[in-house]
Amino acid sequence: MRIKLILSYDGSRFYGFQVQPNQRTVQEELEKALKVLHKSKEKISVISSGRTDSGVHAVGQCVHFDSPLSIPDHKWPYALNSLLPPDIVVRQAETVDESFHARYGTSWKEYRYFIDTSKHPDVFRRLYSYHYPYPFELKAMQEAGNLLVGTHDFTSFCSPKSGKENKVRTIYKLEWEKTDEGLQMIIVGNGFLYNMVRIIVGTLLAVGSGKISLDHITDIIEAKNRQAAGKKAPAHGLYLWQVNYDN
Amino acid sequence: MRIKLILSYDGSRFYGFQVQPNQRTVQEELEKALKVLHKSKEKISVISSGRTDSGVHAVGQCVHFDSPLSIPDHKWPYALNSLLPPDIVVRQAETVDESFHARYGTSWKEYRYFIDTSKHPDVFRRLYSYHYPYPFELKAMQEAGNLLVGTHDFTSFCSPKSGKENKVRTIYKLEWEKTDEGLQMIIVGNGFLYNMVRIIVGTLLAVGSGKISLDHITDIIEAKNRQAAGKKAPAHGLYLWQVNYDN
């Protein structure tokens, strides 16, 4: 049986999603819990919609795995949550067709980035939003964001460490919104490159503070050079919010 | 100069407010930061509105101390926050009259208790609200709460470890409200005994689940016996929300 899971995790104490030698990762914890649940000697491999970086959170990461167990869908979260550490929570499980693939089947992903704009940081949000107590022009940030919507080569907004050759991605939506704590940026696209959302946030904040002019955004895209864009915003403000599949 | 501070702290990693040998406490961290700021050999003693237990949070704890430094009020938070660990944040400072006393001058205090009633815990709130995924009758919980409002001897709602002899306190307000994550209980009173809010929450949840009947609340008060009331709810849902002074 192929099982699809939707899970949240607090990225603070993880070295990202994907298994790394000698580091605590979400994938490793998931596979450990599945091994115990299956009383299995073999590893139960988990495939995700994509990795998240060290320190990045997830509200709706999606993974799949194959299991010989016949556990009803609504019982999978209880079974796994009882074995997982408290910073990972399985929210939902669904038995899916063998053709479902958490990585290759994605049609779009949504990320959100939270910013605490208060003078002194909210102590309860310090691990969950980026404290940025500086003046900003929200209108300019939104206009700069609008220039990124559509299909572009995002080389300038991608870590040079990325292994991906094709850096063309489509952004369907990029919206800044005011929240109780300050700001959030909602971004939806067909795929995101290494550090892409964090570099976009950093660049748009630089537009908001006047360090980068709005006119310059098109030049930055065209430069196809990481040096052209702004700094990347810190990991702990970023959330993989939801992953969508066509069928 | 006497300085009044309003501060927030994340209680998760503190052994309460008050200095304890060999334990990390809020008071110790504050006094350490003040000592560095004053380049002082002498300890700068901090007086709070009252201690909070191990694991209990504060949104608006209030303290005072005396200082020879003439720092403008709005600069105190920056000066102290730069020296404090990230789980304590000074939100506001005010130069007050020598007659101000953070402990003896309080007129009322407000606590709030947060409950996450979702089926599977919100991973980002796990340290900041009590996960209680069980059915409850909110109306009964409110009616039971109404019986506690007023002036009563709260011996039944106080840890037997309390050193206070007079256990009569007045509750001005006790309200349950629905929130995005589930529930909050707001309680305002002229003073609270050791574990009092947590025992009230635990008892009212027991009323909500039918384990304690509404009729029984008056008997519990009259029993003046901790055994008569319900279990105490966990510390990590509780916040000292604000402290009020008459002048």
Automatic annotation (TrEMBL), chains A, B:
Active-site residue numbers: 53
EC number in record: 5.4.99.12
Top class in the EC scheme: isomerase
Binding-site residues for substrate, renumbered to this chain: 111
Residue spans crossing the bilayer: none
InterPro entries according to UniProt: PsdUridine_synth_cat_dom_sf, PsdUridine_synth_TruA, PsdUridine_synth_TruA_a/b_dom, PsdUridine_synth_TruA_C, TruA/RsuA/RluB/E/F_N
GO biological process, one term: tRNA pseudouridine synthesis
Catalytic activity: uridine(38/39/40) in tRNA = pseudouridine(38/39/40) in tRNA
Keywords: Isomerase, tRNA processing
Domain Pseudouridine synthase I TruA alpha/beta: 8-104, 147-246
One protein family per Pfam: PseudoU_synth_1
GO molecular function annotations of the record: RNA binding; tRNA pseudouridine(38-40) synthase activity
Assembly: Homodimer.
Biological role stated in the UniProt entry: Formation of pseudouridine at positions 38, 39 and 40 in the anticodon stem and loop of transfer RNAs.
Record-stated family: Belongs to the tRNA pseudouridine synthase TruA family.
Protein's UniProt name: tRNA pseudouridine synthase A
Species whose genome carries this gene: Bacillus gobiensis
